[in-house]
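Thread: Newbie trying to understand structure tokens

Hi all, I'm a second-year student working on a class project, and my supervisor (Dr. K.) asked me to get a predicted structure for one chain before our next meeting. I've only ever worked with sequences, so writing a 3D structure as a token string is new to me. If someone could post the tokens and maybe explain what I'm looking at, I'd be very grateful. Here's the chain:
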Amino acid sequence: MYSTKPGLIFGFHGCDQEVCDNVLNRKTELTPSENEYDWLGSGIYFWENNLKRAWQFAEELKINPRPAKSPITNPAVLGAIIDLGECLDLMDSENLELVKESYKKLEISSQTLGMKLPVNKTGKNTRDLLLRDLDCLVIESLHDKMLPLSFDSVRGVFWEGEELYHNAGFKEKNHVQICIRNPNCIKGYFLPRTLDPSYKKV
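---
Reply by user tm_fold:
Sure, no problem. This is what the structure looks like when written as tokens:
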């Protein structure tokens, strides 16, 4: 009943400068990610209200490239104005129950067919689960079961990176990630600005 999110949000997408320019000039559109390890399933990914994390991500991919349609040689960030529409928000208890039920059905199916479910794996030199094959399958299976009334977007919060300080409950790369399945949720793109240091409030 409350899965539709009111209002608009800012999302930031780390990419190559050429991709950024082409999208801004309407020469192309962002293409959905469809990797088996995507954290929130297939879709176009954004960092919610987190410009700095988007820059970090783009710069990380330049240093440690992954197989991609558009590798990053010149890091850039593209801003987007987004309406989440019908959102599978993973900070909503009802939606978490849907995801849990999706896993249970997959588990029963895999046992019946004598197949193993994929597992989430840590990345290189980190304890963070960066390769989320299981989560991706669970969410994609949920979308399939919901057809034709599937969600427009998925939203999740993630604790990632090193502790901010000893015994902290906060980590260096904590963020909210948005996965847009319905491209019509993206209302427009923009080039993020930097603050004007000369402006002072009266």
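A couple of things are worth pointing out once you decode it. The chain has a mean pLDDT of 93. The radius of gyration is 18 Å. Feel free to ask follow-ups in this thread.
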